[in-house]
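Table S2 (continued). Query chain:
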Amino acid sequence: MFDNETLSNIIIKGIDEILKRLRPYKPDTKSITINYKTCKSRIELVVHVPNDLRRKILKIEIPSYQGYSIVEMRDETFNRIETLWQRQEEKWVLPASKLPSSERFLIVLEGNVPRDFINRIVRVQPAINRDQAEDYDRYWLSCMLKDVALLERIWNMLEVEEVNVNVKVGIEKCISAALPKEVKKALEATREFLRAGRGKSREKLIRTWTKYRIALRKAPSVDELIDFLYNVTSGNFFRNYVVVDDPYTLGDVKRDEKWIGPFPERMIVEAITFLNLKEPAAKGYLTFKKKKYIEAIKEKLHI
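Corresponding output:
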């Protein structure tokens, strides 16, 4: 974990060192993009290197900061400049004489950002179930940049992409409400029989086997039931019954592996947004249309 001094080193001292080395070249645009999910980052700097300055210096040097690499350089007409930078010890070096005739250049660096660092500048509030109605459940979504004033001192532009809020949506009661009594009995009988099969009691195994066979006379086969449950709790099926408010979009949807009795307990739904210095906070709702979900389950069972 980072203490306050280490954090300061990362977001102030390290960047200040780069900018200090570039001060003769008057960097006028400083932007950073961070991907919240992957912890990857992209830094863009625009620098001025006029001809009279080139005659005074032999090379341009910037520190090799936090594992970043220079991946791209373009001139003021956006033409890509072939790699001229060379890494020497803890810095990147570029012979000034090899630069083309342009005076303004875009330098792009890419690297990884420590997760602890991202957590110190982005606050993601765990989703809260705020409203339960007959037709739907709603979950409150909230995330924000922290220390915006501090970040504005360093960057002209900062964006954090793919900020994800994971919502645990309860579905066990929905499935239970949708299934007919004989199907629920068959599922429970199957569960009891499988549990007895792992035990040592022959009497219990025979008893649960008998109950299992009777239950299946009025219900689909075990394989059909399992396929059905996995189908209605798949991400592709379930995502049709959840929506998110702007500025969020729907991300990954998957089944939680925890089951309550014969049913999955919940789905994990990802709400994704982005943050920047102009819009440092994102708030909204994720809505689970549980009544429509129950109706869809019944329809699949032809009830």
